[in-house]
Amino acid sequence: MKALMKLFKKIDQFIFVKLxxxxxxSSFQKFNDLKAHFNEEQQNTISQVIVFGVIIxxxxxxxxxxxxxxxxKRNIELKNQILEQVSLLNSNHEALNNTSSQFISSAAYTSxxxxxxxx
Length: 119
Fold this sequence. Notes:
It is a single chain. By secondary structure, the chain is mainly α. The protein is 87% helix and 0% strand. It contains 4 helices and no strands.
């Protein structure tokens, strides 16, 4: 349990260090200065939209990736089914060719007399 707590503390420290570096970045300062020109309600709205975007965008990307993977999986399954059917048809064709030679004559008969003479 203590090892798990140490791991979480290290993760928290890493995140807080990165957040401090981000807060000290000039682009973040410019954004805060720009946001300071709005009233408090607008500032809250801007912050909520940003947080919402940071949370929702990964879900949207994950959903898109899941959907694409699902479509690819269905396509592969369909192609496998087609290959199985082609294999089945080929084996049936070979079996038909093997048994047809027993029942079908290789020579063409043009008249009844040729057929009677052959037997």
